[in-house]
Amino acid sequence: MTITFQDGELRQLLREHVQSTQPELLANRQDQTLTYPDWLGTGYKRDIELPSGISLTFHQYRLKTDVINCCEPAPQDWVEFVFSLSTRYCYNGDQRFEPQQAYVAPPCRQVGHWQEFAEQDYLSIDIHLDRSLMNSLVAHTSESLPAPLAQVMTDDSPPVPVSPVGLTPAMDAALGQILRCPYQGITQTLYLEAKSIELIALFINAIQESPPLSAPLSRDDRDRIHHARQIILDSLQTPPSLIDLARQVGLNDRKLKAGFRQVFNTTVFGYLTQQRLEQASHLLAQQYSIAAVAAAVGYASPTAFSGAFRRRFGVTPKGYQMGQRFGA
Q1: Model pTM score
Q2: What are the boundaries of each domain within the chain?
């Protein structure tokens, strides 16, 4: 079953749910949390408004049914940087955005719809800012914005989200720091301001360093690449070799490697490592032993797992567990 919400209806539903169940979550106009009713899903959206004019939205939820959100042209002149850790969307039925990607959306100037899928964990951070603020941040630099982003900053911006890039380790680290922000009050405000600008800078750097686009993949090849990705997700503990994976999806290994990088902006092995460590972070948060988590996500030894985890999150598995336990 799929539930369709017209423009603004989902947020209104969540707000009414919170008003009747946890009104204290709406007490601070600059920091409000909207939770999902049980019949629709679990989790929340958290909106934080910062003094500079930047605003953040944290998405962390799991739906019980597919949802379509319709959007109408809006008068706001802001752009949205989306950093997706484990979020999969489909825009207007054909443009897909995958986990471990970042992209920028221009001001909404046309009717469209976003589809979200049931029984998937959604975790992402959106950064919103007015185009005039974004332009002022780079006004006194001698270097121009990368072409895709520069176009979004003009009135001729494309009507659809553009420039998906893979999340880099630096982006992952900054996102984790935002999600685990230990500060309150003015310290939190300054911290989130700084991290938001850092993420935008990292996004710009990723666009600048992205290799030239390869020839577009056919729909059949793209479907095979997505099938390969699903096989990886289903076999994190004992993944197939690259040759076996290519054979399972009906591609040669060279096309699989090139196509996977084109679709997901990372290597097959890089994606496997990302997903293993994301799953590991969830298991560690549940206080499983480090040895058990290492084995569950396919590492031969806790030592190898600890090194990989620290490189990705900037903290040891034990340190991460302690932070989760004490709310750091």
Answers
A1: 0.68
A2: 2-209, 220-326
